[in-house]
Inverse folding.
């Protein structure tokens, strides 16, 4: 069954309450830069204490040695998943893999807030977002990463070209896109072959977050049957 990852993009005090309200549900919990900078190891410990897998979404992109050291530290605090930018290059990715023996390293291809205009901004020779994503996914595969982050629309092609675990962010229950551009619903993403879907605002802004999580888990199950 595809995994549901819940993004905790809220203040630390609310995050602690939120974790307790979801206790016992089979989910992964994502801690991003905002919350990590506020609460650091404390929030990571809280996620693990409640029995959830920890997805540390820091999207590392730095010189190879710095990234290797960061991967080592992420393992020490118990992260199960860690993101880094595939645009950081092959040497950086290899260094990360050399240190990541007990963590799932996920290469971010292109953020789901980007579209064709971003490819033009980079003055890339790629003709489309999809072509660039597939190229970056291949680099992730060849350098030994465990998975990639991409949109649902790119999952099938990534699966055709690699054996990588695929994580799809920007999942929405409604048509509200906020700052995302390549957006899909839970059922769509799972039917495309996503191994993990990431949801945030539709859950933590809800008056009944636990019910939303349970509903999404049922959607995932129905999409796979």
């Amino acid at each position: 069954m595809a995994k549901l990852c819940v993004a905790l993009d809220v203040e630390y005090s609310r995050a602690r309450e939120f974790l307790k309200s979801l206790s016992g549900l089979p989910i992964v919990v994502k801690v991003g830069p905002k919350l990590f900078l506020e609460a650091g190891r404390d929030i990571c410990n809280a996620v693990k204490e409640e029995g959830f897998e920890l997805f540390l979404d820091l999207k590392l992109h730095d010189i190879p040695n710095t990234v290797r050291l960061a991967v080592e530290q992420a393992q020490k605090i118990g992260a199960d998943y860690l993101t880094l930018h595939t645009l950081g290059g092959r040497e950086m990715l290899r260094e990360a893999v050399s240190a990541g023996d007990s963590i799932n390293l996920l290469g971010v291809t292109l953020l789901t807030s980007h579209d064709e205009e971003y490819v033009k901004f980079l003055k890339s020779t790629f003709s489309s977002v999809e072509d660039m994503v597939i190229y970056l996914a291949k680099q992730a595969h060849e350098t030994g990463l465990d998975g990639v982050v991409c949109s649902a629309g790119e999952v099938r092609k990534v699966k055709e070209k690699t054996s990588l675990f695929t994580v799809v962010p920007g999942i929405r229950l409604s048509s509200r896109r906020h700052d995302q551009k390549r957006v899909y619903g839970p059922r769509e993403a799972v039917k495309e072959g996503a191994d993990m879907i990431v949801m945030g605002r539709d859950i933590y802004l809800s008056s009944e977050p636990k019910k939303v999580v349970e509903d999404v888990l049922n959607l995932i199950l129905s999409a796979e049957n």
